[in-house]
Automatic annotation (TrEMBL):
Annotated keywords: Endoplasmic reticulum, Heme, Iron, Membrane, Metal-binding, Microsome, Monooxygenase, Oxidoreductase
PANTHER family given in the database record: CYTOCHROME P450 306A1, CYTOCHROME P450 508A4-RELATED
Gene: LOC105363522
GO BP term (any one): organic acid metabolic process
Compartment list: Endoplasmic reticulum membrane; Microsome membrane
Main location class: endoplasmic reticulum
Name by which UniProt lists this protein: Cytochrome P450 306a1
Amino acids binding heme: C545
Molecular function GO terms recorded: heme binding; iron ion binding; oxidoreductase activity, acting on paired donors, with incorporation or reduction of molecular oxygen, reduced flavin or flavoprotein as one donor, and incorporation of one atom of oxygen; steroid hydroxylase activity
InterPro entries: Cyt_P450 (IPR001128), Cyt_P450_E_grp-I (IPR002401), Cyt_P450_sf (IPR036396), Cytochrome_P450_fam2 (IPR050182)
Domain of life: Eukaryota
Family named by the database record: Belongs to the cytochrome P450 family.
Amino acid sequence: MLRLRMPSISYQVNNSVFTTFLSRSLLVGPLYIPYLESHTPTVRTLIICHKDFIFSKGMREYERKKSKSCIEKRKFHLQDGAHAWLNENRAGAVQSLPSIEIEGKPDAIRMRTYRELTLNCIASQTGDSIERRLPPGPWGLPIIGNLLSIDPQTPHKSLAQLAGKYGPVCGLHMGSIYTVLLSDPKLIRQLFSKNVFCGRAPLYMTHGIMKGFGIIAAEGNLWKVQRKFVLNCLKNFGMTKFASSKRDLLEKRILLSINEALMKLEMRSNEKSGLDPHQTLQHCIGNLMNFFVFGKIYQEEDEVWKWLQFLQEEGVKHIGISGPLNFLPFLRFLPRYYNIMKLLIDGQNKTHEVYRKILADHRKFPNEMNSFLAAYDKEMQKRLANEEPLDSFTEIQCVYLLADIFGAGVDTTLTTLSWFLLFMVAFPKEQAKLQEEINKIVGENEPTLENRRDLTRLEATIMEVQRLRSVVPIGIPHGTTEDTQIQNFTIPKNSMIVPLQWAIHLNPSYWPDPCMFDPNRFLTENGGLKKPDAFIPFQFGKRMCVGDELARMILFLFTARILHRFSISAPIGNTINLEGDCGITLVPKRQNLIFKRRH
């Protein structure tokens, strides 16, 4: 068991050097100074803030003169000065750094070289900023960076606080990954349209598990080809803003799922205690996505289907963007994280087995039904028949892609709908206004997509729910594919770029009284719909959600038909909890609701 005893030190580490050293030293034991001297050519400067250990006057003066003379050249290498200073002050410096205990035995490995490397790797925030003009941000610790500053229960709020303190472009270290927080929607729109920001951050829980396949973790040409394929499939299914025969078929399929949900909610809702609608909605929305993705549906009691739903929930819960496993992969050897990883990897393997069986069944009994699986297999078979290279269209890519489409389609839609229902109960006057609008526009008929342009208050209310409870509050991180610039700041290659939806959606500069639930923000004086630039539920740019229009269709039809059929309330004595649990998505607490038929 490894335990670091840290004195009260505040410093920044040259992560590439330090991480390389640490990983090797823990595997092969202590390293030696000659090795270190030959493998640390990029050491820049040394600043340690400690009550018993400060720079000598001579080193400070050297730093000041050197930084002043080199700032225009954008280079700030203080290796010689740092080493000279260390030679004079090595004893005190070494003793001020952390000691290490292994398996409870102090100094089982004294790791003097660890301490000395730490000294040689420490780079000051000031020095780093002078060399590369990094964005402003908090100091971090070696190895873990700023992870201790982030509340694991509410990471979206912690990061929003950092953005509020340091500005719309904020830099920090999440473990060894340099991270830039963006909270300016105009800047995000500008940056995410550029290819250099179209990569994915090297997160262990995504790259380590997804291995760069699918569409979420894919990069480069694979991502471009697969994204184009998915968009073409969605358009072929009828995902368009304008009426067409294909869109009519798509709407009919959505309405079948909605009608099943309405029937089950009415049957299962107790007049006094109500019911938790999650399972019913998860089944109906999940089966809708099963139809689009695989061309099949499950019975609610099917054991395979129950297991797939459980796995998806657990995956969303544990693959948190800010989770420590993403940035400190060695934690997977600890019992708690080992069990999580085992659950996810075993679950992934079993899920892929299910998907491969569905693919094999489709090949045995092909049908003309539109589905992603059928379209993908058709493309693979066409390339094989023409003896063309499969390139991006392989069976392993197929199962990862199907998992991505299914997971993203179910989770975000289900979560948004769940938040909507809770807000309707928490704000019954707004619920009544929506029902009045539906009565006026639709009457005794059932709402359809044709009514969407007229039910503007409903659309505005959905948007206000998406603003107040950003389903992906930290956004889906991008990665830089090369060194680049954001404003006047230099951003290194492989940095993680985080669009902070939560911070933007609750920023008083963009939204007056941002914590107040007010659908009128999305309505003009004449009652028309407006979309402020700071509203980014599906992100911006080349990697924005490919199924945004399909999600809007599903949300509109579900909310319109539920409010047309039911009045929703909480059981007597129950208070609606509008706090959520943050994994990849911000999921509401499970709560019982009463669905009382209106007509």
